[in-house]
Amino acid sequence: MIGILVVNLGTPDAPTAPAVRRYLREFLSDTRVVELPRMLWWPILNGPILRFRPARSARNYASIWLPDGSPLMVYSQRQCDALQARWDRQFPGQVRVKLAMRYGNPSVAKGMAALRDAGCGRILVVPLYPQYAAATTASTFDAVAKELRKWREIPEMRMIRDWHAHPAYIGALADSIRAWWQAHGQAERLLITFHGLPESSVLKGDPYRAQCEKTTALLVQALGLADDQWVQSFQSRFGAARWLEPYTDRTLVGLARAGVSRVDAVCPGFAADCVETLQEIALEGKETFLHAGGQELRYIPALNDNPLWIAAFSRILEPHWRDWDALENFAVSPESG
Ligand SMILES: C=CC1=C(C)c2cc3[nH]c(cc4nc(cc5[nH]c(cc1n2)c(C)c5CCC(=O)O)C(CCC(=O)O)=C4C)c(C)c3C=C
Ligand SMILES: [Fe+2]
Ligand SMILES: [Fe+2]
């Protein structure tokens, strides 16, 4: 059996300040995420940040929470279920798909153990980030490696690095945007917004910005947009340091002031809708735009479990595990961990 461990960032267990504090403490203690010296960061994190941010952040989560839980969890799980169902039909009994979260629940340790207990001697790790950043992709690798330090029998391992320019990904994005425009009409401008990153991470060698720009260029080309029909920006700035520019909030204000009245926003870096898309863009971004004089901002949903994306995603993933099933099948015994 081949195990597919799909890993997303993680999300609080509840939209409450204590749950958000637990989540943020784990997340923001990761040295891949905040690269400041511990001596400097520790007092800031345990002082103002964990004291004040959880309550504000919890309100943001509460505004987008679904009956089944946090959107990030709900959509990531649906994606995994849809992949499993598709492969069960095509390749019965060959793969087991399991969702894990880098921070919080269900943990990477639990996901790995579940795959081992299902007899998976080969595991493909799929960080749910189309664009590579050390803060996300490399941190996922760290968590898997840390868990494997506790195992005696290590399975055969592979990891997907990124798929920022994969034709199936670009095609699914373009198709979903075109379908949305067919149903709702097209605004004057398409805002293509990605999660931000400290500029210092890029200066240290992160390919993240270049990969976001490549995704944008390919998407714009696939949609056949002219230069004055789109704009790209970076959202979710955190802290005082310089982050990747242009910032999404300032871009929205600039568009409104330049007389653009209708904007459609899309977040191609998020495989699943979450607080950063549903709250920061669809609610807060809209408010920023309207406040600056714009008339309408509409958010185009992430790919989530859109059947068109599940088909494309399976095309991206299959080459990474299909050759494995041609090899002699072997299983790690459940008691080997
Ligand atoms: C130093 C801080 C942060 C870095 C670096 C960072 C990089 C980064 N994050 C994502 C994807 C997501 N981030 C999400 C939430 C989120 N991100 C940060 C901070 C950094 N991110 C915080 C503090 C939060 C929590 C929300 C808040 O308090 O504002 C999420 C959504 C999680 C959810 O539960 O919905 C995602 C997804 C990427 C791709 C990235 C680097 C490129
Ligand atoms: Fe983030
Ligand atoms: Fe945010």
Produce the secondary structure layout.
Blueprint: E1 2-8, H1 17-28, H2 38-62, H3 71-90, E2 95-101, H4 108-117, E3 122-127, H5 134-148, E4 156-159, H6 167-184, E5 189-195, H7 199-203, H8 208-223, E6 230-235, H9 248-257, E7 262-266, H10 275-291, E8 296-299, H11 307-321
Parallel strand pairs: 1-2, 1-3, 3-4, 5-6, 5-7, 7-8
Helix pairs in contact: 1-2, 3-11, 6-8, 6-11, 9-10
The chain binds the ligand C=CC1=C(C)c2cc3[nH]c(cc4nc(cc5[nH]c(cc1n2)c(C)c5CCC(=O)O)C(CCC(=O)O)=C4C)c(C)c3C=C and fe (ii) ion (2 copies).
One fe (ii) ion is lined by residues 236, 276, 280.
Summarize the structure.
With 337 residues, the protein is an alpha/beta fold.
Would you write up a description of this structure?
With 337 residues, the protein is α/β, with parallel strands linked by helices. It folds into 2 domains: 190 residues, Rossmann fold, CATH 3.40.50; 133 residues, Rossmann fold. Helices cover 48% and strands 14% of the residues. α6 packs across α8, α6 packs antiparallel against α11 and α9 packs parallel to α10. The mean pLDDT is 96. The structure holds the ligand C=CC1=C(C)c2cc3[nH]c(cc4nc(cc5[nH]c(cc1n2)c(C)c5CCC(=O)O)C(CCC(=O)O)=C4C)c(C)c3C=C and fe (ii) ion (2 copies). One fe (ii) ion binds next to α10.
